[in-house]
Amino acid sequence: MQKAVLKLDVHNNKEKRKAMKIVSGFAGVDSIDINLKDQKLTVAGTVDPVELVGKLRKVFITDIISVGPAKDAQKKDGDKKDDPDKKKEGDKGGKDSAKVAPLPFYYQPPPPHPYYYRNYSTEEYPNSCVIC
What we know:
Number of helices: 5
Radius of gyration: 25 Å
GO molecular function: metal ion binding
Organism: Eucalyptus grandis (Flooded gum)
Protein name: HMA domain-containing protein
Order of helices and strands: EHEEHEHHH
CATH topology of one domain: Alpha-Beta Plaits
Keywords: Lipoprotein, Metal-binding, Methylation, Prenylation
Family: Belongs to the HIPP family.
Number of strands: 4
């Protein structure tokens, strides 16, 4: 889990909604925060910041300010190390048993209707209308 802070050229709520829609489309995003005053976008999760900036640059002027571990993840790790009894009560499967990589979502448009792109002959369709 990491936290990425991006400088985003956003001036009003309409652009803010557009940026939030773009960022929320990524798999692995846990939280999004946009500060209009400072023009900063903060994204926490397992998303790749380079892909995020590449997508945002199609619409906005975007720069990476910083990328680092999220502070919540550090606190959670510290709590687990302090209390060994919680580890015994938890999962028995080990570290990697609960980790599953999210699958990316790819939109596949439906195939075009064949009648628009192909010329059909009367031999293929004998009941079609032909003016002789």
